[in-house]
Write a structure and sequence with these properties.
five-stranded parallel β-sheet, single chain, Rossmann fold
Length: about 325
């Protein structure tokens, strides 16, 4: 199991959310040919508006692609165009095919020099408000499509559609988004008759610097759709909390996505005083895959189902 520092882990979590757009579907624009049909590999250039509001011009349907964020990479493979991806981020690990791809970025840095050498038809980048890193790529004439932070499921659906338009597979994008929505709805329907919501403490960084998730985060959206009440859901963003606050809240369930501890569940249960928590006494401490739970991409339906299953196993 790969170990990372606390700083790197929080960077990964933050940047995992900086992958998809907060744009509305109204902002997604694609040129059409004279017959009002989507562009195909045989037609001329076209443009798609990215999350900067920039019209990114593509001379043809991309044949070589670089993805600088794991969620974008997952989306490309889910759309059936993963064979066009030639380089990715250091933390790309899904699907398995990504293990063979070259790495040109990490949680913080982009290797612009290497990207220029590879000369892809398009680069899918994330936005952190600083475009310095992608400027030399754009200056070289390589199209860079920037996707901003996804805070809601609707943002993710829109991002999937944007990426599908860039790749000339708009119909597949619509289908993929619809399939994810169907899966989420199926989970929500199973939870429709819940009388009392389970209360959860969601840990993304362990003691002594404990961080959890609050409102206006992607993880909060997952918990809400899974019918679970976040004990820190009234606070904003990623929150540093004390053990005293958690003990006072006494959650029904504890979820951790910490994957750089040898046994995160055992570590939580062994903390002084935590044996008084209902979640610990009832053996309701769970580890959930951090990639699935933090990447706003095509596996968000699976994330909702995973969370719902641990809270309401009798319904699944």
């Amino acid at each position: 199991m790969k170990k990372v520092t606390l700083f790197s882990w929080l960077s990964i979590v933050m940047l995992a959310v900086l992958v998809a757009g907060c744009q509305s579907a109204d902002n997604n624009q694609v040129e059409t040919n004279d017959n009002n049909q989507p562009k195909t590999e045989e037609t001329s250039s076209y443009t798609v508006k990215d999350d900067r509001g920039k019209e990114v011009k593509l001379e043809k349907i991309p044949e070589t692609v670089i993805s600088l964020q794991p969620s974008n990479t997952e989306t490309l493979f889910a759309l059936g165009v993963g064979d066009k991806v030639i380089a990715v981020n250091e933390f790309d690990n899904y699907p398995e095919e990504t293990s063979k791809l070259e790495r040109v970025a990490d949680a913080v840095n982009i290797n612009a020099e290497r990207i220029l050498e590879l000369n892809p038809d398009v680069v899918f980048a994330f936005s952190n408000g600083d475009e310095t890193a992608i400027k030399p790529i754009e200056d070289a004439g390589i199209p860079v499509f920037v996707i901003q932070s996804a805070l809601t499921f609707e943002d993710v659906y829109d991002d999937i559609k944007q990426i599908s338009e860039v790749m000339g597979v708009k119909d597949k994008g619509e289908e993929l988004a619809a399939n994810i929505q169907t899966k989420v709805t199926e989970v929500e329907n199973k939870l429709a008759d819940i009388d009392k919501k389970q209360r959860v403490y969601f840990e993304i960084s362990p003691s002594p610097d404990i961080y959890t998730t609050g409102k206006n985060t992607f993880q909060q959206g997952i918990l809400q759709k899974a019918g679970i009440e976040n004990i820190f859901g009234e606070q904003e963003g990623w929150i540093k909390v004390s053990e005293e606050e958690i003990l006072k809240q006494n959650p029904d369930i504890i979820v951790t996505t910490v994957n750089y501890a040898d046994d995160p569940i055992a570590e939580i249960k062994s903390r002084q005083g935590w044996d008084s928590l209902d979640a610990v006494k009832n053996d309701k401490v769970f580890f959930l895959d951090p990639d699935i739970m933090s990447r706003p991409g095509p596996r968000i339906g699976e994330a909702v189902e995973l969370a719902a299953k641990i809270a309401y196993p009798e319904l699944f």
